[in-house]
User: Fold these one by one.
Assistant:
Number 1:
Amino acid sequence: MDIISHGLWGGIAFGRTDKKRFWLAVLFGMAPDLFAFGLLSARVILGFAPWPQFTFGHPDPSFIPPYVLELYNLSHSLVIFAAVFLLVWFIRKRPLWEMSAWGLHVLFDIFTHSEQFFPTPFLWPVSDMRFAGISWSHPLIFIPNVLALAVLYGYWLMPGKRRAAEVEPEPAIESDTEPEPVYEYEQYR
Ligand SMILES: [Zn+2]
């Protein structure tokens, strides 16, 4: 999946309560790719590494330096994700749910990367098992992905939805346990 979609999926799945949590979930959604490709991208932009050659819509894998593959293994493993998630839970004494966007990123990548370009090492370092999915740049994945995001965000951010929910009248609670008037007891004392 492309990095923008990853961020948006993370945000809508785990960051709907407030702005801060939303952006944190977006960041965790993009983090696995930022971690793997950030350094290489910075080096390319600053002129320390050559621009990768593009073939069939994605860079030729032979242009990818080995350290990127190492970083990719680390950030695209459900084993590493689970370990870090539990460690953070242990340190904070409560889970950081927005981190789940990282796990969701890996789940999406398992099925949206072909064997030719970064198949997801989701069980690394326990197993090198990878799944031959359909590339996210394929219209069969890309178009439904954009549509699904548009529908979900459209529904979530629909103007007036929240206000309508707020003004909904509270159901009147019929109560037959009215407090007994105290003065009556006081009178006959
Ligand atoms: Zn990824």
Number 2:
Amino acid sequence: MSTANVDAILQNIGSEEYFPISYEELEQGAKQKMSAGAFGYVRSGAGGEETLRKNEDSFKKLSIVPRVLSDVAGLDTSINLFGRIYPHPLLLAPVGMLKMADEQADLAVAKAAAEHQIPVVLSTVASYSMEEVAAAAKGPKWFQLYWSNNEEVSFSMVKRAEEAGYEAIVLTVDTVMMGWRQEDMRNRFSPLKLGYGKANYETDPVFLNSLGSQDSDSIIQGILDNIHHPGLNWKHVAELKKRTSLPLLLKGILHPEDAKLAVANGIDGLIVSNHGGRQLDGVISAIDALPHVVESVNGSVPVLIDSGIRRGSDVVKALALGAAAVLIGRPFVYGLAVGGQNGVEKVLENFIQETKVSISLSGVSSIKDLPSLKIVRA
Ligand SMILES: Cc1cc2nc3c(=O)[nH]c(=O)nc-3n(C[C@H](O)[C@H](O)[C@H](O)COP(=O)(O)O)c2cc1C
């Protein structure tokens, strides 16, 4: 482990072309590559961006109290989720409309993640269809579902995901309507309207059959009509659970009572998330919500987290507070914008290495021991 770590640092130091290392540099790099509208779409949060800022600030308010002299030579970062072992406690969060960042979009991301056996969670509003992504990359893949008003479209997409080899379904529950995105209004930018998120819809027979006409404008309008689904409730969740044999997770849980209801409805896993501060502004940061959700489910299902994870020490804090794994969001999108597939690989390599260093320097040598690590507010 120690040698591998030195190698990773030297690789970065010795490489001929400088690639941004920190999140701040990645963001700046992406800003230079992307249109103002696209960059603003990725960077921004909803409302006054209170929650966007809070996500990162809350991590900074937590401190690790490390142990020393505990022999961390045999570091094991593997995790087990739904019976499958993954080498790292990391997944890639569902991010839609990635053609905004790079033409190869989800294909590039899935190939980069496959290099490390990191699961990608493909968005409903991906730029390539779930079948195209499955054909391009053989690594582990989960499918994220945005509920459709026409629920048969939801069931059809889930069936396609099963057939294409996706291994879990993630239902996003904090997006029954779009958050109040001021930056996009300012930039007059809607990637959905530009067609960046239509791939899974224009390949779905049930969706297509539901349209009066199948021209491009009708497809976009059909997506907009389906994606606004304020009626979503626990009955839909229970029905979805019946319709799939895959593990079903809910993404966007912040309240411990919702976590309990999810377990009561047979849900297999939770993702504590506030959608990266893009939905309801003013909500609790994900990392502050995590311990309460973990406590409320009492080990019955794995609890994952995203929103504000920027570096290896954030991963350590989340796992120490009871997360089974973390999802990386904006950092990989910026990596994609800066350097395509290679850029995503760079971001992941640095995340993996910094996570390993951070776990080891905390005095812990396996993920399962991380919950005993002391975290304080200081
Ligand atoms: C540009 C962008 C697009 C996103 N698209 C989706 C999506 O299609 N489905 C979804 O469930 N979450 C989506 N999210 C939310 C992410 O899955 C994740 O919750 C969020 O990025 C975590 O916050 P962070 O990036 O600040 O760490 C998106 C986030 C961004 C930044």
